[in-house]
Every structure is written in C-alpha cells, then in structure tokens.
Design a protein that fits this description.
- This protein is an alpha+beta fold and 337 residues long.
- The strands form 3 sheets. Strands 2-3-11-8-13-6-5-4 form an 8-stranded mixed sheet.
Length: 337
C-alpha cells in the first residue's frame, strides 16, 4: 500500500525527462500515431495548438484563484453536506488520505449542479457558472478529439467507442480545481540544515486516475511528477500554452492494457501558489467497461473482466489513494502478484 507521505522519501530518484509534445494542428494520421506512441511509452503527454481559447482558460484560472484567495470562513460556505461536490481542504477521498491541497469539485456533466454551487462560491454566480461551463465544454471537446484519434490509430471501426462515453448526458465526468498554497518559512522546520535544502511536501499523493482520460492545465508553477517505475519520478515542466493529457484506468482496460494508467503526484515546492484544473472524463455509472473486440487478439487475449463504471467507482472509494484498483478486475489475478 502506498500512502500520501508528508515529505519526499530520501531514496527516491528524480529523472529529468521531457514528456512528448503533440501538435494537434498536424495531419490527423500523424497526430494519431504520436498520441498512441505517447500513451504506450509514457501514459502522459502534452498537447499544443489544442483549440481551447486562451480567454476561456484565463477566465477559469482567474475565477479559481479568486475563490481560493477568500478567507477560509467564506470558502467553507461552499462545503456541501453529504455531497462530494463543492469545497474541500486537506482531506482527499474518504479513507484518511490527506495532502497540502484545497480544492473545488464540480459535476462536469450537470449544468444545474454547477449553477447551484456557484451561488456559494462567487459574488457573481451567473458569471462564475458560465465560466465553468465554457471551460468544461471546451476541454471535453478536446478530450473527445484525442480519444477519437486514439481509436482510429488502434484500428477500431467505431472511432467514437471511447468518446461517446464522455459525450453521454449521463457521463460521470468531473472538473477539479486543486490549489496548492506555497510553502512558507514557518512551514520549513529543517530550513537551517542546508542552504540547498529543498522545501517540499506532498500536495496530492501518488495515485492513478480511475476515469477514461484526464485533461490537465496548471499555472506556470512546477509540482506535477509522474512515475514510470517504482521510486523514480519525472517532474513535468509547467507550460502555460499546453495541456497535459493522461490515460486513466478505464482507458487502460478498454485498450486491453496497451495503454498504461501511470501513477503521478503533486508536490508543493515553490514560493508561489500552484493551481491545477483537471477535467476527468468518465463514463455513465451504468456503462459496461470492456475492450472492443478489435484490440483483443489471440496474441493479446482479454486481460480484464467486464464491469460497470459504478462497480469501479465503488472500488476506488473503498481504497486508499495509493492502492492499485485495476488489478482487482483482471481475469487472472495472479498476473499482478
């Protein structure tokens, strides 16, 4: 079991590797090949020329920072009783994981829910609500474009096999704004050990994303790290002109293990606040998650038993942040042992 720890583990290794960058303005067959290659090798990549208008991104970022800059008493007014959506601080999930993070969580497929939440979040709820909806719609279209290119390159005749799950009106997609306050001098008890001591804490512990695909945007402050092997972390260089895209557990299942849902974390290691805006594209609760026949071959037999997103979501909520969920649904559990 891997739990969110308060400080980096000394035995960890940091590996300075740049993620692949995919230019979405290139010819579609070229883009599709680059995306699939990145998903197979990294599970993470960046996209440029993504088509999401800069004014929509800027408005969403301004709205997010505006909320997180409020006094705690006002932010706590956005906590919804018995509702996963709304404001949260420190606590991650339902099983005791914590981090140096505060967040806002929205039901990305329910405009009414967004409108109702906005009344507790902003002094101008109509503007805030329209900002969230515009951003969500834009990144959802980006996610669907990428998923359809993936399906085409994988040789799946129905190129909407992944994207239609996100476009579905009952999609369980969410938008999460994570705010990582800067580490202050009083937070750093060990600052006098060395002039080069790296003041850092785990903001959001090691995990994989359970959904289909994540579209992530952060301000120009470092913190995101991915792990392709145990104990080795690759810092993701922040870039205000790109989106980070990563494979979720469901997409790993639906590509029959060809793509990997890679573990990642966020560190608070800067004197500046960091805010990430993550769109998690998810299927409807009743959707059956299974690999299309085109990615199952005698050489690569089906690895996972069919399950619904509701089943997988229940498994996700029953475990700690760093625990592996996907292995629970393999046809041959001994493969993971």
């Amino acid at each position: 079991m891997v739990l969110a720890s308060p400080n980096p583990i000394r035995s960890e290794k940091i590996l300075p590797i740049e993620l692949p960058i995919v230019d979405l303005s290139l010819e579609k067959p070229v883009v599709a090949k680059l995306i699939v290659k990145a998903c197979e090798e990294f599970g993470f990549f960046k996209v440029i020329n993504h088509g999401v208008p800069q004014d929509i991104i800027a408005s969403m970022e301004e709205a997010g920072f505006g909320f997180f800059s409020k006094p705690m008493a006002q932010k706590r007014e956005a906590i919804a009783a018995n509702n996963p959506f709304g404001y949260g601080c420190k606590n991650i999930g339902f099983n005791g994981d914590v981090g140096e993070v505060e967040y806002l969580l929205f039901n990305a497929s329910n405009p009414l829910s967004i409108s109702q939440m906005s009344k507790d979040i902003s002094n101008d709820p109509s503007k805030f609500s329209s900002t969230v909806r515009a951003y969500t719609e834009a990144v959802r279209e980006l996610a669907c474009e990428i998923l359809e290119l993936m399906a085409e390159e994988l040789g799946v005749p129905d190129t909407s096999v992944f994207s239609k799950l996100i476009r579905n009106l009952d999609s369980d997609s969410v938008l999460r704004l994570n705010h990582y306050p800067p580490i202050t001098i009083r937070d750093c008890k060990d600052r006098d050990r060395s002039s080069s001591y790296n003041h850092s804490k785990v903001g959001f512990g090691e995990h994989s994303d359970p959904q289909i695909l994540t579209i992530l945007r952060s301000n120009d402050v470092p913190g995101l790290q991915i792990s392709l092997q145990d104990g080795v972390w690759i810092p993701v260089t922040p870039d205000p002109f790109t989106f980070c895209v990563n494979v979720g557990d469901v997409l790993e299942v639906m590509t029959n293990g060809r793509f990997s849902s890679v573990r990642h974390r966020a560190m608070t290691n800067s004197s500046k606040p960091r805010m990430s805006m993550a769109y998690f594209g998810a299927p409807p609760l009743h959707a059956c998650i299974v690999a299309p026949p085109d990615v199952v071959t005698p050489q690569r037999p089906s690895l996972y038993r069919p399950f619904t997103w509701a089943e997988y979501k229940k498994a996700t909520y029953s475990l700690r942040l760093g625990e592996t969920r996907i292995g629970l649904f393999r046809k041959c559990r001994e493969i993971d042992q």
